Amino acid sequence: MSKRGFRERLAAGETIVIAEGYLFEFERRGYVRAGCFVPEVVLEFPEQLRALHEEFVHAGSDVVEAYTYYGHRAKLRVVGREDELETLNFKALDIAKEVADKHGKLLAGGISNTTIFNRHDPKTIEEARSIFKEQIEWAVTRDVDFIIGETFPDFAEALLALECIKEYGKVPAVITFCSTETNMTHDGVPIPEACRKLEEAGADVVGVNCSRGPVTMMPLVKEIKKVCKGPVAMLPVVYSTTDKEPTMQALTIPGKGKPAFPVDLPGVACTRTEIKEFAEEAKALGIQYIGLCCGNASHYMRILADVYGKDPPANKFSPNMDQHYSFGDDKHRNDYYNDLFETKLKDNKAK
Ligand SMILES: [Zn+2]
After folding, report:
1. What is the pTM of this model?
2. Tens digit of pLDDT for each residue in 59-89?
3. Fold observed for domain 6-319
4. Domain ranges of the chain
5. 20 to 30 A Cα–Cα from 180, which one of 73, 210, 221, 292?
6. CA 111 distance to own-chain centroid
């Protein structure tokens, strides 16, 4: 299936919807360990990875991102599998490419914060460079349409990632910062300013992903939008963060006061309606590159893609409570069950 290029689509003002959040979804399903968060599913259960890519495409993702997030040398070392690094990366790229090609979707390579970067220590900067270089060089052998560099806490590490994508990959770059509680990068640059600098340095898309939920990420994205000229990326986590608890790491379980991160986050998950409202606001704001990060699942993706006008295949099975035997419309409701539920959904039909 032929497809138009990433830059061409952005230049034409098209929106790009992207499913992320593989890490948390596989952790939830029992294929990735919380803590180290290494994508071992790629090596051990490749069919599960293929199936989740298919599921996200079905739900409307325009992009298949190779699941190489935290599949880098420093992270593989944590679980003693550094010797499988190359195998993991090629397997992730090949599976993503297969699904992307099959459906005519964009294929993205992925790099991320290295977790070993320390701007005061030149040795770690060089190590980060070599981590980026090898993952980028592997990705471009599979003809990725662009490379995503994501969840960077430091401006310096994000800039290094961008430089590496340009130097070793020569493909379009999407760079997103981790949306911290302070609105600042770890090395003290206001995130909107950091985004503007990366745009000037040649990033095709800049923005934020992870940590903040839709409600608390939106004000930050509005500030980014004010200072950037090009496409802005917004990929919140799918949790109901608040002004008091603006990130998923800060969230507590309602009524208990205990931290929800990471394993109890489902207790503070966004509703589908909240995701719909977020998508509508982002679209109205002109957010051109939109997605969902940790906590994402295909039922959320379908709503986001639908609001963005993608008419995902999964819409075939979007909710229609008219057909319900007790809550449905006159044609479908069986009046024998009228007294089954005291609560009626007449004014609250799921759409
Ligand atoms: Zn995330």
Report:
1. 0.96
2. 999 999 999 999 999 999 999 999 999 999 9
3. TIM Barrel (3.20.20)
4. 6-319, 321-350
5. 73
6. 13
